[in-house]
Amino acid sequence: MKVLVIGSGGREHTLVWKIHQSPKVSKIYCAPGNAGTLRIAENIDIMADDINALATFAEGEGINLTVVGPELPLTLGIVDEFERRGLKIFGPNKKAAEIEASKVFTKDLLKRYDIPTGRYSIFDSAGDAKRYIKEIGVPIVVKADGLAAGKGVIVCHEEKEAIKAIDSIMEEKVFGGAGDRVLIEEFLEGEEASFMVFTDGKNILPMVSSQDHKAIYDGDKGPNTGGMGAYSPAPVITPDICREIMDRVMTPAIKGMAAEGRPYKGVLYAGLMISNGSPVVLEFNARFGDPEAQPILIRMESDIIPVIEAVIDGNIDKTDIKWREEPSVCVVMVSKGYPGSYQKGNRIEGLEDVERIEGVEIFHAGTRLSQGNIATDGGRVLGVTATGIDIKEAIGKAYEAVSMIRWDGVYYRKDIGRKALFVMGSA
Ligand code: AMP
Ligand code: GLY
């Protein structure tokens, strides 16, 4: 079977890597891909949001299955267009992807189906939003309604920060139309975790849990990024909490989407705060997390293709997934300056030595091949992912590999996974 993977990040290299292991697959294409996908797939120079060009390519090449990595094409309706042309594709359609495209839609959905989430108010006028902030005070969280590349959420500990957030989102329109409405949410304390499931619209198959590290600096300091590293499992998600997430979050969300004429097929990702021992929903995403996909898929023992096919065919109740017991850690190596501006085109060294270490995979994100060398080509550059007997060994192996990789202006957090050690009481 011929498979097309759409996207160019660490998540997409991981998907290509996992799909490549399937005996059912004879050829993989990745559009547009990176220097990592290039080694096991054919990169196709079409951008992830160029839906018509992608569908025409899939038709012409006789692609049997398309797997969408990022949210943008999903929210633009790539699944609708492929299905209209009779092409098989994995992911939610446009109406279902609204769960990520609009935070206001999702909050209202959560409320209608009594799914635990923080208290909130919605504003379409900057003046009203500011008056509200002055009335209820801080800490508070300001969120742009639409997609903002992971930057539309501002946790404010001071009133002037919150007012500034309203100004930049609603007046200066730093996220364009995504900031026409804002959501102001109560600040929740607790431990964050990510929980993803495969769903065919009726049945739900959970993945193992994971935890991201969103802030740029050690100790969760500094601005939020797309994700600086992740590990799996997240010890904070105990078997009881896992059951609660399935019963109180995933099941009602999937049932609710179906009841509202938006049957949801694909991967549903819940960003959760575990607050006083119970899960509270911060957000839903319509796709695999990045970098969460890296430590999760490295633990997936089963072939991913039958799972994807069962999601599309509507029978994942007849499917099961086998997971490796060993925990895993992914350390994201970025270009200095990220999530602000950064240099591109710096030559990366040391990759070949790391490839010889057992139990370590280097998933590429912003990389490209330049005159025979691998060079940086984005903010998040590599996701160095390791498994180990325990989380401590996995952390050690990941950082051993990271220490062997160099380029001008490399930066990474030194504390990825440390939280898991604390939760388990072994640090
Ligand atoms: P989101 O995109 O909604 O998941 O928000 C991005 C990040 O902002 C989350 O991963 C949290 O670290 C933080 N965050 C979002 N909502 C809240 C909240 N209500 N209370 C505290 N932190 C939050
Ligand atoms: N790592 C967070 C996300 O994928 O949205």
Number of beta strands: 23
Strand content: 25-35%
Number of helices: 14
Round the Cα radius of gyration to an integer and report it: 21 Å
Please explain how this structure is put together:
- By secondary structure, the chain is an alpha+beta fold.
- The protein has 4 domains: 2-93, Rossmann fold; 119-186, Dna Ligase, domain 1, CATH 3.30.1490.20; 191-318, ATP-grasp fold, B domain (D-amino Acid Aminotransferase, Chain A, domain 1); 328-423, Phosphoribosylglycinamide synthetase, C-terminal domain (Glycinamide Ribonucleotide Synthetase, Chain A, domain 4, Alpha-Beta Complex), CATH 3.90.600.10.
- It is 32% helix and 26% strand.
- It has 14 helices and 23 strands.
- Strands 12, 15, 18, 19, 22 and 23 form a 6-stranded antiparallel β-sheet that branches.
- Strand 10 and strand 11 (204-206) form a beta hairpin.
- Helix 7 (126-136) packs antiparallel against helix 8 (159-171).
- The protein is globular.
- The N and C termini lie far apart (47 Å).
- The structure holds adenosine monophosphate and glycine.
- Glycine (GLY) binds at residues 150, 212, 227, 285, 289-290, 292.
